[in-house]
Amino acid sequence: xxxxxxxxxxxxxxxxxxxxxxxxxxxxxxxxxxxxxxxx
Length: 40
Prior knowledge:
40 residues
């Protein structure tokens, strides 16, 4: 089972790889990924 630190590291990796700063089109992606980390 991944730890909280592992989840946060994966989240940061996801954000730096997939989000480029277009808030309107990327907000849903950001929220879905954030929700997955909080749930797990």
